Fold these 2 entries.
Entry 1:
Amino acid sequence: MNKTVLITGATSGIGQATAGILAENGCRLILTGRREDRLIQLRDRLISTFNSDVICLKFDIRIREEVKKAIESIPEGFREIDVLINNAGLAAGLNPVHEGSMDDWEQMIDTNIKGLLYVTRLIAPQMTERGSGHIINVSSIAGRETYPMGNVYCASKHAVQSLTKAMRIDMLPYGIKVSSVAPGAVNTEFSTVRFKGDKEKADAVYNGFTPLMAADVAEVMLFILNRPAHVNIDDILIMPSAQAYSRDFNRSGKL
Ligand code: NDP
Ligand code: 8X3
């Protein structure tokens, strides 16, 4: 696949796995995140394994000036971005609204909604100008359902669903594809981040069933990008077999 792809949140989980599968399939990659050591490690691995063209951009997606500076620094050869994968995101905390942390709320809104918008605003114009491009937003089952104590995280992913539709409508005249990938439980660093390093709580999320792995979601990304020009995958909901609803799991150990 002869495409230049920018992936936000490539230092871990879904973003990292997507970088791997796209490198294997011949994409040029721009990997982004805050943890530079991880970006460099991944870049070096992809170069040595697949002989890929890869660059890294370290920035905090919540800080508008940092995002702008990083995107403007993209070197010649990587500037024509065919695909933007808006993946960076997180949940912080799991509390009822009346006990929620406002810092957590700001972190989720600033990352999952505003950060996604900052990057899109900076990259989408070159796509509309060219009349080609594809944006994939990583949403969640939390963008379809609201579950107990998920309040602000669920709201942020509902916003991603809504923005996905909005982007598809606004960029339709320019031939830009816009897709959404909404996974259920994926075993990444997500729960460790949500529970602020409490491994016991994080591991309990996946007790008694086989969650999705980041690679399962990465395969969906590849499928979306491999469709012919006249086909767009608007929206994919991908769940572990043991999950029927945002909080309905079969924890029998059989699935
Ligand atoms: P991880 O925690 O493994 O990865 C999250 C990625 O987001 C990291 O690369 C992290 O990079 C990046 N990120 C977070 N905050 C910022 C920031 N302020 N600036 C730049 N990058 C940031 O989780 P997942 O891979 O699971 O999450 C990826 C996406 O998938 C998220 O949008 C998440 O909401 C969504 N999702 C996850 C599910 C799950 O069950 N795991 C299910 C459904 C959706 P760094 O820390 O280096 O900055
Ligand atoms: C992550 C999945 O159900 O923990 O988006 O919100 S969930």
Note: The chain has one domain: 4-183+212-242.
Entry 2:
Amino acid sequence: MVVVLAGGVGGARFLSGLVRIVAPAEVTAIVNVGDDVDVSGLRVCPDLDTITYRLAGVVHPSQQWGRDHESFVVSGELRRFGHPDWFTLGDRDLAVHLHRTLRLRQGAPLSRVTDEIRRAFGVEVRLLPATDDPLTTTVTTRDGRTLGFQEYWVRERAAPEVDHVTAVGADDAQPAPGVVEAIEDADVVLFAPSNPVVSLGPILAVEQIRSAVARTRAPVVGVSPIIGGRVVLGMADRLLPSVGAEVSATGVARHLADLLDGWIVDTQDRDAVDTIRGLGIECQATDTMMDDPGIAGALASTCLDVASRVRGAAA
Ligand code: FO1
């Protein structure tokens, strides 16, 4: 079993590559829920949905979140009643949020609802939310405001300077059923090229998940989300300084060093390989720009190669 800790768009791209080389039924994704948000009374889980849509082949091709062939009739009508319009839900996307909200109201935990939804989309990869408990990411800005993640990222376009990010609820949140067992029983644990602060961060903020990753016998191999000192997508470059991490492949490796056995960097960062090996982390440079599933598949293959090298060394 290959277990992947993942956020949204980068995690989904990586998983679509991994399933080209590993049977989907052999893959479990542990997914961030810190981005989740209530919109017009509905529970929206952007990272779980982005991964579900991508693996089901129905994700919006250029946005890489939300549905393809989408329309926005309902969101347009909701404006008539003054609903906020900075976070728009497409009509097809709404069906997932309506169903999820109904099932949650019936008392089903998010992990069960997530499993129902991914199966309904024919997704064979097992998707586990990091937790079924309340866990939400807030961003406190230098000018003293505390924003929800989507307010910061979508409404404010990540413009405000960030003082710190908090995974609210992490201290009390329990891993969702199956999460710790998946990590303990994994053959390999991979960190997708996701935002280390707001995607991997909230997952690892659940202490029992972090400690399971720290103690698993499986090799733990991650992919740098920073290439040549820059983010591929999202806003990790604006958040890494708030956790004292340098905006570089090496900086993120240092930030995660106590959990990593291997770290994959882009060929642009090949000169960082020796430094990262100096941290006691096996390191390999390869093409990490997942512009097509073929590259994503080759990247996943490199991750598994490094994992087997590390396993051999550890044995
Ligand atoms: N991102 C935007 O920039 N604008 C939106 O209106 C928006 C709506 C939206 C609806 C559902 C969903 O699953 C994702 C959505 N996103 C939107 C993207 C979202 O903010 C990010 O993709 C994730 O939170 C980061 O992983």
Note: The chain has a mean pLDDT of 97.
